[in-house]
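ZP: hey, is the nicotinamide-adenine-dinucleotide complex queued? I don't see it on the tracker
AM: it wasn't, my bad. submitting now with these inputs:
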Amino acid sequence: MRETVTSVNHQAGIGLEDAAALSARFGEKSARVGVIGLGYVGLPLALLFSSNGLQTTGFDIDPSKTEKLERGETYIKHISAAAIAAEVGRKQFRATTDFSGLREMDAVLICVPTPLDEHREPDLSFVRGTAEAIRPHLRPGQLVVLESTTYPGTTEEVVLTILERSGLHCTPRPYRTDGQEVTGSLSGDDDFLLAFSPEREDPGNAIFRTHQIPKVMGGVNGASAIAVQALYAQVFERTILVSSSRAAEMTKLLENIYRCVNIALINELKLLCLRMGIDIWEVIEAAKTKPFGFTAFYPGPGLGGHCIPIDPFYLTWKAREYEFPTRFIELAGELNSAMPAHVVAAVAEALNRRKQCLQGARILVLGVAYKKDIDDLRESPSLRIMKLLEQQGAVVDYHDPYFSSLHKMREYDFKLSAVEPTAGALQSYDAVLISTDHSAYDYHFVVRHARLVIDTRNATHAVKEQREKIVRC
Ligand SMILES: NC(=O)c1ccc[n+]([C@@H]2O[C@H](COP(=O)([O-])OP(=O)(O)OC[C@H]3O[C@@H](n4cnc5c(N)ncnc54)[C@H](O)[C@@H]3O)[C@@H](O)[C@H]2O)c1
């Protein structure tokens, strides 16, 4: 059951009328939606709008992606080609690199990357580039929504500033939310509307589908808030409006910082438990039985993915403007980024106990994706571990069901093809390192045939035989 939008305080200026008219068009599904950036976030979002009956156009600078989509093909494992082909076939969805079509859109959603630069500071070049690309095509009455994760203030300070160079205006004004009701100073002469709504996509999550994940949003003013909530209420089961775009930006960072800090905590406790001879995974399972006040986080070989290792540092950077040190974030970053070196030390120690050394040892790494059952290598700790192993003289091979070879990346250039983990192959390595616990692996088989197994994920927990070969770290 969808919660519906908006009881409006009618004291109105043009901005509010625009918002009400636009909201009505979203409700009638006669509005057109444009999504810029067709990656892990943008593509499922575009398909969600399209499959709910709104004409949707995806925009990307990468022609190989738009061409594939136009042919009804996919490039993301968990998004089926059939779903894309169905929407393209119904002419509900199309993809293009021609940004002039933005003018036709009623709502434009920005889903481009927000990485860190080489100094680990926010790299907003993609967001800026996209705002610049929208600017010549911006027209009165359009709603623009930033979805990319970023520091509080980006929507107003960066996107709004660039869009207003078009000569069209949207004025930030405070508004209040009371449940679904928007009140406060709603009047104004806005030409366009602007909001922020953080993406909460969790690739590979089989329990929550995109439309089931509650959608948080905040406008730069009340009219924008009304319009953005009307838009998302068409496709999400639940929408939550907060009182500003800055609060919405901060909400996303809180979620990711919470994960980052708790993962660091559990990683630190794992190191202590290893020394104390206590099984951290057993302890977590026991603690999980508490029906309130405890959420389980699991230790691993380090942080990965496009979000958790990166997003918290967007806030650290912004906090400097307020002369405020974000100590939890810094400490969590320090602890989490030390985990790959810990894994390598554990491999060396395990070999040492067998009178072998890392220098010249042959190691097979199982799983290079940053988490189980997904085809995403970004910031994967496995890659860092492989590099550290090589630096210490080990001969490293890998297998991952999602990557048949490893191509050159920004930081790594392994030039490796995947080695099938057959019985013979497993036996031929000095150690097999489980870095990502993909479901596709038969861990009984791995332990039976490997000489030594280093398990960073407790993937072998169900294996009862030959446990003396397993070292958990
Ligand atoms: N991947 C996730 O699980 C996830 C979850 C929540 C939030 N986010 C956030 O969502 C945003 C997008 O992440 P993603 O994982 O979808 O990234 P992605 O790299 O998978 O996709 C980004 C897409 O944007 C395109 N692009 C880059 N610059 C562009 C430009 N100027 N104009 C048009 N297209 C452009 C790229 O070609 C690519 O297709 C980031 O801010 C990220 O932090 C990601």
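AM: back. Residues 1-14 have pLDDT under 50 and may be disordered.
ZP: great, adding it to the tracker
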